[in-house]
Design a protein that fits this description.
The chain is α+β, with helices and mostly antiparallel strands and 218 residues long. Helix content is 44%, strand content 14%. The protein has seven helices and six strands, in the order αααααββαβββαβ. A six-stranded antiparallel sheet has the order 4-3-2-1-5-6, covered by helices on one side. Helix 1 packs across helix 3 and helix 3 crosses helix 4. The relative contact order is 0.07.
Length: 218
């Protein structure tokens, strides 16, 4: 009995969570339909509620915005808009910070997470998965006695929250796994382990290498 129950859970739990996430996204995006007058909303025109119209509208808005931003006049318009926002005291700080983060995470040239690392966190007797994000700013580095690196330590099972930590480069270890594999490893709380890679002699890799072997980051 227990065996069949577990087998059923293994089928329905991932499917149920996937459906719940999709339902949440579609329901949230459908709120964009509130931008239209009540008389022009699809539910009123069609006489029936069809989920997903908001998602289509959001996609169309994003696509249209991208088309405008990609041309010369659109780029100038966005610069003017950002210049206006930059003159508002509180808005300036929030907008500029969020824009820098989004440019790093979403742009093709961005490189938010460069390597998967192993760091001693939250104390010297514990190790955590982290991601290399760069090097400390000059204003910070001048107060450090040796070379340090900036890392992001995600929490589990939600890696979107975590800790920004500056650690000595000599105490960080480079992991033989991709960023995607490391994220899956964190989200699954260590259950989904990355596959071991094979060396030319057929032995498995996975040896911890000092982060000093990493390429120097700007």
């Amino acid at each position: 009995m227990r065996r069949y129950l577990v087998a059923g859970l293994l089928v329905w739990v991932p499917l149920g969570i996937t459906i719940w996430v999709l339902h949440f996204l579609v329901t949230t995006l459908d709120q964009t339909l509130l931008l239209f007058p009540e008389s022009a909303q699809p539910d009123r025109l069609l006489g029936v509620h069809i989920p997903g119209f908001g998602a289509l509208l959001s996609f169309a808005i994003l696509l249209l915005t991208g088309v405008i931003a990609a041309n010369f006049f659109g780029a100038r318009l966005i610069r003017v808009w950002e210049s206006l926002l930059g003159r508002i005291p509180v808005v300036k700080s929030i907008y500029s910070s969020v824009k820098q983060v989004s440019d790093t995470l979403l742009s093709d040239s961005g490189n938010a997470f460069r390597k998967a690392l192993l760091v001693q966190f939250p104390h010297q007797d514990a190790w955590s998965i982290a991601f290399l994000t760069g090097t400390p700013a000059p204003a910070v580095a001048e107060h450090l006695s040796e070379e340090h690196v900036s890392v992001y330590v995600p929490t589990t099972p939600n890696p979107t929250s975590g800790y920004f930590v500056i650690v000595p480069k000599s105490k960080v270890r480079d992991l033989d796994m991709t960023v995607d594999e490391a994220l899956k490893y964190v989200i699954s709380m260590g259950v989904v382990a990355p596959r071991s890679r094979k060396n030319s002699d057929g032995t498995a890799t996975g040896r911890l290498a000092p982060v000093a072997t990493l390429e120097k980051t700007p």
